[in-house]
Amino acid sequence: MCRSVFFVEDMHLFMPFDQEQMFTQRLPLSIRVLLESAIRKCDGFYVKQEDVDNILNWEERQNEAEIPFFPARVLLQDFTGIPAMVDLAAMRDAVAKNGIDPNLINPKCPTDLIVDHSLQIDFNTAVRNQEMELIRNKERLQFFKWCSKAFKNVTVVPPDIGSVHQVNLEYLSQVVQEIGGFVYPDTVVGTDSHTTMINGLGILGWGVGGIESEAVMLGQPVSLTLPHVVGCRLVGSISTLATSIDIVLGITKHLRQASVGGKFVEFFGPGVSQLSAADRTTIANMCPEYNATVSFFPVDDTTLKHFKQTNFTEEKFEVMERYLKAVKLFRSSDDQTEDPQYSEVIEINLASIVPCVSGPKRPQDRVPVPCMKEDFLNCLNEKVGFKGFHIPKEKQCITVPFLHEGTEYFLSHGSVVIAAVISCTNNCNPSVMLTAGLLAKKAVEAGLTVKPYIRTSLAPGSGMVTHYLNASGVLPYLSQLGFEVIGYGCATCVGNTAPLPESVVDAIKQGDLVACGVLSGNRHFEGRLCDCVRANYLASPPLVVAYAITGTVGIDFEKEPIGFNPEGKEVYLKDVWPSKEEVQDVEEHTVVASVFRELRSRITYWSNLDAPDALLFPWDPKSTYIRCPPFFKMPTPVSIDNAHALLFLGDKVTTDHISPAGSIARVSAAARYLQSKRLTPREFNSYGARRGNDAVMTRGTFASIKLQNRFIGKTGPKTLHIPSGQTLDVFEAAERYQRDGVPLIILAGKEYGSGNSRDWAAKGPYLLGVRAVIAESFEKMHKNHLVGMGIAPLQFLPGQNADSLELCGKERFSISIPEEFTPQQELTVMVRCFLMFNSCAFL
Predict the structure, then answer these.
(1) Where in the sequence is the signal peptide annotated (predicted)?
(2) Please, are residues 699 and 667 in contact by the beta-carbon 8 Å criterion?
(3) How confident is the model at residue 592 (pLDDT cuts 50, 70, 90)?
(4) Helices 463-471 and 430-445: crossing angle, nearest 10°?
(5) Distance CA 31, CA 47 (A)
(6) CA separation for the pair 174, 180 (Å, rounded)
(7) Which of 85, 96, 688, 755 would be 102's cystine partner, CB 3.0–4.6 Å?
(8) When comparing pLDDT for 257 and 598, which is higher?
(9) 148-177: pLDDT as tens digits
(10) What's the gap between Cα 186 and its chain centre?
């Protein structure tokens, strides 16, 4: 058994073995964190000596050895946290029914649950209703409060404090943990894919699914393949006009081209010192967009300076600094002799990065701002796809008049109808929010306005953002342009946008217009913001304000004015864009240590909400939010006999397609269920908010309006019930199959399950009766979730797919799965009346 590596006794560090031996191979610093955890947790059962040796010999064992990793804590947000906590509550019921003490069911790993995704934009006013007081959230909030009282090792951060990532950065991050006399690195896994944001502060962490997070909470390690580590060397000087968003999108593009999927990325080089701690977290936030596992910035002088201004006492700061330097987890970006050995090195010149936006459908499709007008026109011409809408040339110049509040306006292709300034995740950097505020100030002073029909909103990541916007004097100017603070949490990004005015929706439909949304968030899949808004662009907060003022994305900011002052004089973007010096001066005087202290004092349990005081949760049979799930009652058959295909899907089916998080459509199966419970459409809320109710989530599985099912030939949440030949909602078809005792499979193409990790993307199909997914390839995390739920992820052999095997999807499928099998073992799929083929089981 291995002993813990480092511990504190009378403020001295002791090392039980030769420090030089540990680091002779110049391991990447992220790998050193994995090594420390393995040695400290080495017990001969979960972690063996062989695991430690594999990490020590990382250069030879990378991409081969599987290693266990015990994170220091688990981070949940409410959308993904509520099903995890509901499962634990149901687990208590199950053990109690078997005569076992339910108090034994508690998370072993410290768990923080931040209530932030519950935010729903209802009114575009300055008055914010605390959702704790709203009926639609009361049941869930009471459940969360019960969790905080009933479970040990669970901390719940209530609503109106901040987004999960902002709270993690400002309050929960420790860099080093001090528990029981031991000092060790702070590490975290979270149920949000952007948990990687914390990597910017030198804390190793990444996103996992709800199923994996539950295992970690209950004391299981995360299993990962010893990663390939890409060293990203930053050189050059940053352009004065480039914001942190431009930097992150530029680096995202480079890393996507470098094919870093599934790898660790670790930053080093002279350019790193130019990036503030906020810049680094902004870059690390976009890690999922270039598919890396982590984007790690080792702790250096800049990181220490950041923590000195925030939430660290002098004593804690001293322990942290001494510990990190003693164990070689601190580095100087300017000292090349400290550069570790990496699997490979790529170099990015920061001077080459220019301001960009991203869209119109995918975050990786970057568009330089000077080329935006031309690019949008090209998208109108291109055939329907990731960069095309295929609008006939004769209809590209159409304008549609409409009335809004008694005034006539006009919409055309490229008109902006949604403009959302969001400061969570990739916009937590104070400089970009202050730039937006100063731009708004100058625009208002120049007499510029935003058209009132544009759905504008301002969702700060935390109260700290509101504080420094207010302290700097720019918040009133943002309000004058319509960017009112609507609350703290995820809103527009997860589909919680307020409905557009009916006259705007009618005009868009009348002209078949490609209307646009512009937001400073991190996700913008087509149809996610609003069903009728086809083009959506990610942009920095100041550019969101600029596009809102112009009212269109079809503008060349260098050559065309963004508006006119009261005297009719043209006003260009350069006239109102604040200089870097202006922004830095305001930032230095507003974003100070007092802000962090003030907001930390607000993080406490809420006291005005009643919650059950019981060991077992008293399930309310009338509740449409919280329901005891049936997972502990359902047996899983091994072999699959005479299954039908529920769906016949193509490539790139995302977890958004499988389990949507946005609003519940009025004509959906979930809506009919809620209506049967006497709820009105206004009370439906969203799928994300109802993840604690399996009845809603099962009906919402494959309910995306963008689902492309080859059985149907058009987009929509429909499928073919093969025995009857009827076209039904996916849930209704699955329900019929289950009544008839028919197991189900899904046929798919490449990259099945890509996108956000989402436990209901595996739970939902399981409850629909799906027992296998046969695809050309899978997203790794989703594949693991399928296995965890008892759904077999089967991959066509190389060179084969449904088309090459001439499958129409209407066959009957039988799959014999042996009691003992190995990963990538070939299995035979029997297809009744047609053919027999092999597929590879990735289990």
Answers:
(1) none
(2) no
(3) very low
(4) 40
(5) 16
(6) 15
(7) 96
(8) 257
(9) 999 999 998 887 777 788 788 878 889 999
(10) 21
Here the tokens at position 318 are: 């001293």
- Angle of helix 301-309 relative to helix 314-326, nearest 10 degrees, comes to 160
Strand partners, 752: 778
Q: Is the peptide bond before 102 cis (omega within 30 degrees of 0)?
A: no
Six token digits for residue 289: 């967009």
Residue in this structure with the two tokens 């699914």, named with its chain if needed: 209
HSE-CB at 491 with a 13 A cutoff on CA atoms is 33
Distance CA 820, CA 790 (A): 14
> Which residues on adjacent β-strands are paired with residue 330?
299
**Residue 61 CB: number of other CB atoms within 10 A?**
16
Say if residues 36 and 23 touch (Cβ distance below 8 Å): no
List the structure tokens of 122: 């209802």
- Percentage of the chain with pLDDT > 70? 86
Q: Which helix (DSSP H) or strand (DSSP E) does residue 148 occupy?
A: helix 135-150
How far is it, in rounded angstroms, from Cα 612 to Cα 603?
A: 22
Using CA atoms, how far apart are residues 213 and 220, in angstroms rounded to an integer? 9
Residues 6+ apart with CB under 8 A from 513: 398, 400, 411, 412, 413, 415, 507
The helix/strand count (H/E) of the chain reads as 27, 34
How are beta strands 229-235 and 344-349 bridged, if at all?
Answer: parallel
What one-letter code names the amino acid at 797? Answer: L
Closest CA to 826 of 838, 814, 834: 838
Structural contact between residues 814 and 642, judged by C-beta atoms closer than 8 angstroms? yes
pLDDT tens digits for 519-536? 987 654 454 556 789 999
Quick one: which H or E segment has residue 510? helix 502-511
CA distance 816 to 839: 12
- Of the candidates 93, 82, 111, the one whose C-alpha atom is nearest the C-alpha of residue 631 is 93
Rounded CA separation 788/155 (Å) = 26
In 3D space, the residue among 841, 782, 659 whose CA is nearest the CA of residue 288 turns out to be: 782
What tens digit of pLDDT does each residue of 53-106 get?
999 999 999 999 999 999 999 999 888 888 999 999 999 999 999 999 999 999
Specify whether the CB–CB gap between 297 and 303 falls below 8 A.
yes
Q: What is residue 349's three-state secondary structure?
A: strand
Residue type, 591: V
Instruction: Calculate the CA 22 to chain-centre distance.
Output: 35
Amino acid code (one letter) for 221: P
User: Is the per-residue pLDDT at 14 higher than 70?
Assistant: no
Tokens 């390939």 — which residue?
Answer: 228
Angle at 251 between CA 249 and CA 257, to 5 degrees: 105
Give phi and psi for 651, each to the nearest 5: -85, 160
Q: Which two tokens stand for residue 100?
A: 């076992």
> CA–CA separation, 594 vs 490, rounded Å?
25
Separation between Cα atoms, residue 584 and residue 607, nearest integer Å:
39
User: What are the CA-CA distances from residue 488 to residues 156, 450, 491, 527, 604 (Å)?
Assistant: 16, 23, 9, 23, 16
* CA-based end-to-end distance of the chain: 30
Task: Show Cβ contacts of residue 416 under 8 Å, excluding neighbours closer than 6 positions.
Answer: 454, 515, 516, 517, 518, 547, 548, 550, 551, 552, 553
DSSP reduced 3-state for 244: helix
> CA nearest 103: which of 154, 151, 142?
151
Please tell me which residue, 291 or 206, carries the higher pLDDT value.
206
Q: pTM above the 0.85 mark?
A: no
Instruction: Report CA Rg, the chain.
Output: 27
Do residues 538 and 358 lie in contact, with contact meaning Cβ atoms separated by under 8 Å? yes
SS3 for 763-829 is HHHHHHCEEEEEECCECHHHHHHHHHCCCEEEEECCCCCCCCCCCCCCCCEEECCCCCCCCCEEEEE
Nearest to 748 by CA among 647, 611, 623, 625: 647
